[in-house]
Amino acid sequence: MSAVRLAFPVALSLVACVIAAPGATAAACTWKASALPLPAGMTQGRAIASDDQGGYAGIMMGTGPERVALWKPDGVVDYGQVPFAPYLVSVADVNRSGTVVGHGLRSTFAYGPFRSVGTRIEALPVPAGTHSATAKAVNDRGDIVGQYVPKLGERGRAVMWPADRPGQMVELTGLPGTDTKVANDIDEDGTVLVDVVTSNGTTTGYLWKNGVATKLAPPVASKDVSGKSISAGRIAGWISLEEQPGELRAVQWDAEGNASVLPEGQSADSVNRDGLAVGDTHDYSVGAAVWRGGKLEAKLPNSPQLFAGKVGDDGGIPAYTRSDNKDTPLVYRCG
To answer: Could you say which residues form the signal peptide (predicted)?
Structure first.
């Protein structure tokens, strides 16, 4: 629950280049990774989300419980541990004010949502008797979205913790059917990206705002459509082909709703307001793919194993590598 000041020049350059992407456009810069510093006593960390202004949220670990952290240009903010979940903590997002959201494992298959307040972590309110709930995203206003499961065995519901209604959790109304719903992300204008998943696993993505749900239109005939990230109206996600349901394709929607398949992509997991997208390819030797303007720009290496987080408006990609069961936090930047 303290701000640990570590100058960022301590960060070490880990990767000096990317895997050449056949057919990729000539990049105006080179993607490089730099390690993020760890305070004394911390031996591991994971950078997951960007505050869009050079800060990256995640967790760090030593010999004790996992701690929520925000790596800022002038040091590391230590929010401490999640009170109800010392381990198996998932940081999901952070906004420009430094509000970090996520969830932790309360008990077997049951999660509790949290947010940061100042430099401490507190539980988000849920109805009494709630089985499980997760926080997935937060916008700069402080609206938080996620999923709520009332009772064990019941279907999940897409929910919001509105910034202007402290202490309240509200279900998103106007979504079709009674299937499982999860709110994946929220834009600055309050538009929420929601997946509706049937009992047989078929997924349909929607844009939700003020009680009105609009289905995401895929670029080609599809069995499944999922939106994972939204920024300034741009959306990143994936589809499965109608004639080949097991075949996934990464997709990006522009601010006007026009969709296109991203080259070599299996899933697009995040996008920033400028259209820079990050996701996975079908090549498991690639840690992550980067697309700019709908064109493949780079393939980030997967040795050691790479886990890429949400790209920020500052162009940084928070991530971590895993080697010998040790996680190292880092950020990729193009420069």
So the answer is: 1-27
The secondary structure of residue 154, as a DSSP letter, is S
Asked if residues 41 and 60 have their Cβ atoms less than 8 Å apart, the reply is no
Q: Interior CA angle at 217 toward 214 and 223, to 5°?
A: 110
Contacts from 159-162 at CB under 8 Å and sequence distance 24+? 159/133, 159/183, 160/186, 160/192, 161/113, 161/115, 161/124, 161/125, 161/135
**Which token pair is 173?**
């109304």
Query: At residue 19, does pLDDT exceed 90?
Result: no
**Cα–Cα distance, 178 to 174 (Å, whole number):** 11
φ, ψ of residue 101 in degrees (nearest 5): -125, 155
Quote the Cα angle for 216-187-234, to 5°. 50
* Cα atoms in the 13 Å half-sphere on the side-chain side of 186: 32
Phi, psi of 40, deg, nearest 5: -55, 135
**Dist. CA 66–CA 148, nearest whole Å:** 24
pTM over 0.90: yes
The Cα–Cα gap between 237 and 230 comes to 9
- Cβ atoms of 232 and 187 closer than 8 Å: yes
Task: Give CA–CA dist 148/211, Å, rounded.
Answer: 18
Give the other-Cβ count within 10 Å of 38's Cβ.
21
Edge-to-edge order in the sheet of strand 89-94: 89-94, 100-107, 110-117, 120-123
Place of tokens 């990256």: 56
Structural tokens at position 8: 């960022």
Residue with tokens 């989300």: 49
- Residues 3 and 287: their CA atoms lie apart, in Å, by 31
Give 26-69 pLDDT, tens digit per residue. Answer: 556 899 999 999 999 999 999 999 999 999 999 999 999 999 99
The answer to whether the beta carbons of residues 161 and 125 sit under 8 Å apart is yes
Residue range 283-302, pLDDT digits in tens? 989 999 999 999 999 999 99
The structural domains of the chain, ordered by start, are 2-25+32-325+330-334 (2.130.10.150)
Cα angle for residues 231, 234, 235 (degrees, 5° grid) = 95
